[in-house]
Amino acid sequence: MTESSNQTALEQAFSKVLSPFQNFIEEQKSSSIILISATVLALMLANSEWAQHYSDYLHYQIGLLVGQQPYAMSFKHWVNDGLMAIFFFVIGVEIKRELLAGEIRDIKKSAPILVAALGGMLVPALFYFALTFDTAYASGWGIPMATDTAFAIGVLALLGARIPISAFAFITALAIVDDLGAIVVIALFYTESIQLAYLYIAAVILLLLILANAVGLRRPSVYILGGVAMWLAMLVSGIHATVAGILVAATIPARSSKEPDWFIKRIKKLLHRFERIESGKQAEVKILEQKEQHQVVENVLDAAHQASTPLKRWENALRHPVALLVMPIFAFTNAGVSLDDLSLAGIVAQPLSLAIMLGLVLGKCLGISLFAWLAIKLGMGELPEGLTIRHIIGLSFLCGIGFTMSIFIAGMSFGGNEELLAMAKIAILIASTVSGVLAYAWLYVVSLGQDS
């Protein structure tokens, strides 16, 4: 028995055309492709006859005029402090979900991941610190600690069935812990002079949002308004405004308002009612004319809403907009570096560039794989099923793709020095490319060994 369809021939034809695009958006690697495209476009514009227009676009002031007092920031500032707060919010939601129901919930399973993530932060920072100690570059030690989850998973997706599915879980959990570490570093070490009054205001807002969660408030408007207020307070407090995204994410309810048993009973009742209406209507009557059926469908949607958690709904709603819009806009805004006065050989020879590249490529590889191996040897846990230490080496190379978070930290480290910032960005791009190629080649060779 085939399922009936109300689609017209034109709708069915359009669905066939649209389906590949929908599948493209759903795939993890799509965000990596869009990120690369945005980065290449930014580099092309910054080194073309339109370079001045590109620069003007980055510094275009956007804001409000209240009386005679302007409240405005450059477009680049809005992206880095505003849009990226949404990016950090999604990271925070993923961290909370992972802590409550993911790979890092079970300490026996998560111990190697947690220890590996720790090594993946400490060793790259030590590489960087050793090469830049007592220099003007020392403040950038957080740059090689970061991992770009979208690019990392995108490279894994290119390998397809050649890589165990558990590799995706491992790299996702490790990158989430990595992101958490980077956020702590940003909050503690990359702040300006702190305005305590505004920090107190942010703390009060956070407590109110925690209270809202505790009493069962699930309306999105409560957390959106609270989040905007906290972002404003953070913006003027001296602590980077994007930290507000993480803190608000921690307050999003992770409990559904109704239990599964209620949902099952409710859906059965609604389906029975829908079937009764359907069997009793005249054949020529369209569903558009059936108010009762529409009401039943709306009740089903409402029941599904009550049986799901706000945490998961928000993650699902924001994951694709952040991956396909926010991150590419960030890349387009921040990756444009003029190469006119810079030579590749000269950049690579600089201590700053060497520190970033060695930190991301070698530091990440040694830190993650060595610490994971030690955790297993010390009996702290086991690797996920299907993974070996050879896979971990490949995945550790993968974590050397710093890109988004590394560029973000570089901007905070060298924002006042355009020459150093440009050098850091180019080093990040080179290291991320090398890490991605090494990871793909290593894991591909490992997969060949398993097939033989």
UniProtKB/TrEMBL annotation:
The chain crosses the membrane at residues 71-93, 113-131, 143-161, 168-190, 196-215, 222-252, 322-342, 354-376, 388-414, 426-445. Keywords: Antiport, Cell membrane, Ion transport, Membrane, Sodium, Sodium transport, Transmembrane, Transmembrane helix, Transport. It is found in: Cell inner membrane; Cell membrane. It catalyses: Na(+)(in) + 2 H(+)(out) = Na(+)(out) + 2 H(+)(in). One of its GO terms (biological process) is regulation of pH. The keyword Nucleotide-binding does not apply. Its main location: membrane. Belongs to the NhaA Na(+)/H(+) (TC 2.A.33) antiporter family. This is Na(+)/H(+) antiporter NhaA. It comes from Dasania phycosphaerae.
